[in-house]
Structure formats: C-alpha cells, structure tokens
Amino acid sequence: RDVERSRGLGDVYKRQNITLMRMKQLFATSYQLIERTSTEFVRYLYNEIRWGNRLIAITGARGSGKTTLMLQYIKEHYTAYSNEALYASLDNIWFFRHSLLELADEFHKMGGKTLFLDEVHKYPTWSVEIKNIYDSYPDMKVVFTGSSLLEIHKGEADLSRRAVIYHLHGLSFREFLMFEYGHKVETVTLSDILTRHVEIAMNVGKVIKPLVAFKEYLSYGYYPFYKEDKVLYHEKLLATLNIILDVDLPSTEKIDYYSIGKMKKLFAILAELVPYIPNVSALSKELEVTRISLLNYLFYLQKAQGLLLLDKEASGIKQLAKPEKIYLGNTNYAYALGGDKTDVGNVRETFFFNQTRVLHAVTYSPKVDFILDGTYSFEIGGKNKTKEQLREVPNGYLALDNIEVGYGNQIPLWIFGLMY
After folding, report:
1. DSSP state string for 132-162
2. Cβ(287)–Cβ(264) under 8 Å?
3. Alpha-carbon dihedral angle through residues 148, 153, 157, 160, given to the nearest 10 degrees
4. Which residues pair with 55 in a beta bridge?
C-alpha cells in the first residue's frame, strides 16, 4: 500500500510539474505579446474602463482591438515579466488538456493578481468557470473579452450581476485621425456640435484637411487592421465577417450551418438594397424561410456588426421586431461590396448612424432621416441639400458632406465622427 501510495503521489507531482512547465509556456507567450505591443495609440474605451473592478467583460467585433487593449493595459500597469498579470487566449492549445480553473489555481499560487482572458466564446464552459474563479479567489481580478455576439447573461452562469460590461466599437473618425495621421483631436459632445460646430471645424482645419482624411476613413478606416494591408483590406473585411458567422456565431448560439448560409445570402441581398425599408414577407419568400427565422437572422447580423437596424423606438436590440430601415454595419462594407459604384447617399447615412449610435439613441422618422435622443432631427446629404424637409420640424439640422465648415443649422457631416 505504501508503495502504491508513493507511486500515486509521484504521479500527482509529475502532473503538477507538467502543468507548471506548460504554465511557463503561457507566460512566455504572454511576455512576447506584451513586449511587441505599442502604446502609442490607444482606443477610446481604454480610459473609460474602470480597471479596478474584479470582473470586467469587453465585447466587440473581430479586429476592433480588444486584444491590444488588454495587452496595452498590462504593459502600462505591471512590471515587465511579472507573474502578477497573465494574458491567455482561450483558443490556445493549452486548454485542450487543461481547464480554465486549473490555470487560475496555478496562477494564484504563483502570486498572480489579474488574469486577462481572450476569446472566451471559444471555450465551452467559460461562464461557469469564470464565475467559480470570481467566487473562489476574491483577491484576484479577471478581465475577459468575447465576440460582439456574446451575451454575458446568456451563459450557463449569469455573470451580468458580477461583471462590468463594456463594448468596443470600430474606430471613430476622430480615432482614425490619430491612428493614421498622428493628429490628436479631442472628443466633442452632441451639444458641442450643435452649438459650436464652426469653431470645432476651424480648429481641426488648422492641423489637417478633414475632407481628404474623411474620404479615406469612409473607405477603409473603421477597423484598425486596415493598416496591415490597405490594398487587401476590403477582402479581409469580408473574410472577417465570414469567420464571425462561420465560427463565432455557432460558438455563442445554437445555430446550424443551413441557417448561416441563409444569413450570408440575406446579407448579400441587403447589401444591394441599403438603405432598405424591409418587406419581411418578400424577403422571407426569397430566402425560403419563415418570418421568425428572417427576423432572427437580421438580429444576428446586427450583433455581428454586419448590419445596422433602425427602429421607431430606442429600446435596445429587439430580436423579433421588424426594423423600419436597414443599413450596412459601417461604411467600409459599402466600399468593399460596391467599389467605385458605391452609392454616396447610402455611405453618408450609414456613417451618421454608425457614429452617433455609440452615445445616443438613433431612431426612425417618416419626416427626416434620423432623430437623436427623441429630440433632434437630422437630414443627411451633400453640400447642395436644402432646408426644405426641415421647414416644419423642430430642432432640425442638416449634416452635409463635402463641406469643411458649416453655418447655422448646416453642420459638416465629418464632425459627427468626433464624438468618441
């Protein structure tokens, strides 16, 4: 018995040593990624996150910069090559043979203070194990990222009451000016824009010609990975949406590949029609699916950041409600799909909707293009657009393309990209 017990203990120690060796591999990968991460440009969300909380969730589309955000924070706030912080992606092969709980336990024993976990939707029991870590190690913090499709409250363990949840959107036009040109422009509020847009435009115009940069941004500036290869960016953008639908969606929702195929077809149809006032019956018939299935597909495409759905009321994402109007998720999709034939009117409206929705409730109106916060009415157009549609509309404004500086209630469209 003593011999058997000795062998058993030997096996335990052997497994522990193997685990520690592989932990060292995770640390080595983490150190290398942190070392290579630049802190010269940081996304808007970096300074909005309350990093002191014990459990932080960051969701966002692929390529929006969630991983870089975490690595930058580690680099800025922890000693180099420290054991106190560890970055690990949950699609790492390490997790094929080890659990997240094992990682947390070993990390805690080594004096670890904060776990930074990437791509949690790739790990089947992520919510249960993160809840267990939160409950079992009260002196340890966890920051985790997941797909924009991830719904924190839908996991096997509802983390919404424990986690502080943030969503990372694509680059704003303001961030693009910094990322591409190195020009720092301060954020402005909607109130600033409505009352001080001439002053704002003049100040920006002192350091850069905004219309030139604006055209670039509309074509390729929404996701930071455009810098890897501008020539192939549009191709990679569409490939990324495919990966979101093929990989991320099945890992977060119970959905089959038949439905994914239908969603891709729906996206292709809508891309040729936007901005589109949906005829649900006609779309359902063309796709050969039920009304409920079609509305579900629209909901998933919105969560995947492929579409923007405009509703009458600002009550959040309603899965089974028919939207009043449909747009592509951002202007880069328009150029990726339309090239030189891209409709400029669609691009203008898409930009305005995409940028203002981050901080404001954007709703449908039969009289004007958009209403913000239920109060301010906006018509979008080119520099020659008249005020005719605003004649009987209170708090009405024109957001106009191809003008550097506005006047009165005529505001340059590009300025609405400075709000985050």
Report:
1. HHHHH-TT-EEEEEEETT--GGGSSS--TTT
2. no
3. 100
4. 142
Rounded distance, CA 347 to CA 358, Å? Answer: 17
In whole angstroms, give the CA distance from residue 374 to residue 397: 14
* pLDDT block averages, 10 residues each, the chain of length 420: 53 53 88 97 98 97 97 97 96 93 96 97 94 97 94 75 95 98 97 98 96 98 98 98 94 92 97 95 97 96 96 71 95 96 96 98 96 97 93 95 97 98
Q: Residue 346 corresponds to which tokens in the numbers above?
A: 């669609």
Length of the chain: 420
Residue 55 neighbours by CB distance under 10 Å? 19
pLDDT score, position 152: 79
Spatial distance between the Cα atoms of 177 and 93, rounded to a whole number of angstroms? 38
Which pairs count as long-range contacts for 250-259, CB under 8 Å and 24+ apart, including other chains? 251/121, 251/122, 251/147, 252/121, 252/146, 252/147, 252/149, 252/150, 252/151, 252/154, 253/149, 253/300, 255/300, 259/293, 259/297
Token output for 224: 């930071």
Side by side, the strands of the sheet bearing 164-168 are 85-89, 114-118, 141-147, 55-60, 164-168
d(CA 121, CA 152): 10
Taking the model in full, what pTM does it have?
Answer: 0.91
- DSSP 3-state percent helix, strand, coil across the chain (nearest 5): 50, 15, 35
The token duo for 414 is 């590009």
